[in-house]
Write a structure and sequence with these properties.
By secondary structure, this protein is of the alpha/beta class. Helix content is about 55%, strand content about 10%. It is built from 13 helices and five strands. Pfam families: Lipase_GDSL_2.
């Protein structure tokens, strides 16, 4: 009897660890759909589809929360484009600056969308350093390609717009606007449209409380139990965030629409 219990417990542990490993890989470990390493090989032909590169961190990678790049790719009007997802979980502006040649320029893009800086805010990267990195990224793309460029403002972190963290995030968004103006590239008001949704909510927003266990729990609900990202957000009493950082499908749809309008302009 004791042996059967031990075997059952061992099997249960194996199952739990296997499920946890699967969730961890799907949310944090796997690459995005059509990353630069697959899409932008050296033998790309001159008659390849016009390429749109979306570059950034986890909010662009789209494996934890909404995949707005994938939603763009699936639109019928975009069948004539190739969408490359150059989002990397955890990246800061310094990380993207280091890989701008290998993940953006090598793709010979027709258009580039950049959403980077949320991790700079969370890591308290000095504003001047962020400005220098973002400017260098844009200048490098402009000097090596003829691509149209759009800089996307940063989504709020958490849903309390008056929180100190979001007031500080606003200074980074000012840098994004200033960089777009200086470099004569486009600016997409992601933050502004998401903030409008938060202002319409009834009741006080939950305070910012991001943690890895919370993110893992959100991923478990989605990948293990099949709940939509919108359902995950609602279960935590949030409008647009699954874990105070990453957007649900409703929030992702706002970015998708802004990006689609820009591509069509």
């Amino acid at each position: 009897m004791k042996r059967r219990i031990i075997v059952a417990v061992c099997l249960l542990l194996v199952g739990v660890l296997g499920a946890a490993g699967t969730v961890g890989y799907l949310a944090f470990g796997r690459p995005p759909t059509n990353p630069p390493t697959e899409a932008c090989a050296d033998d790309r032909t001159s008659d390849a589809l016009p390429t749109v590169v979306a570059a950034g961190s986890s909010s662009t990678q789209g494996t934890l929360g909404a995949d707005w790049v994938g939603a763009l790719r699936e639109r019928p009007e975009h069948r004539g484009y190739e969408f490359v997802n150059a989002g990397v979980n955890g990246d800061t502006s310094a990380d993207l600056r280091q890989r701008v040649d290998t993940d953006i320029i090598v793709c010979r893009p027709t258009a580039v969308m950049i959403l980077i800086g949320g991790n700079d805010v969370r890591d308290d990267i000095p504003l001047d350093q962020y400005r220098d990195n973002l400017g260098a990224i844009v200048d490098r793309i402009k000097s090596r390609t003829t691509a149209r460029i759009a800089l996307l403002s940063l989504p709020p972190l958490g849903e309390d717009l008056d929180a100190a963290l979001n007031r500080r995030l606003g200074t980074y968004n000012t840098v994004i606007q200033q960089t777009a103006t200086r470099a004569q590239v486009d600016y997409l008001p992601v933050h502004e449209q998401l903030a409008d949704v938060f202002r319409q909510r009834v009741g006080d927003p939950a305070p910012y409380d991001f943690s890895f266990p919370l993110a893992f729990g959100a991923a478990t609900q989605h990948y293990l139990f099949g709940r939509s990202w919108d359902e995950v957000a609602r279960s935590g009493g949030r409008e647009l965030h699954v874990d105070h950082v990453h957007l649900n499908d409703r929030g992702g749809a706002i970015i998708t629409e802004l990006a689609a309008q820009w591509l069509a302009s």
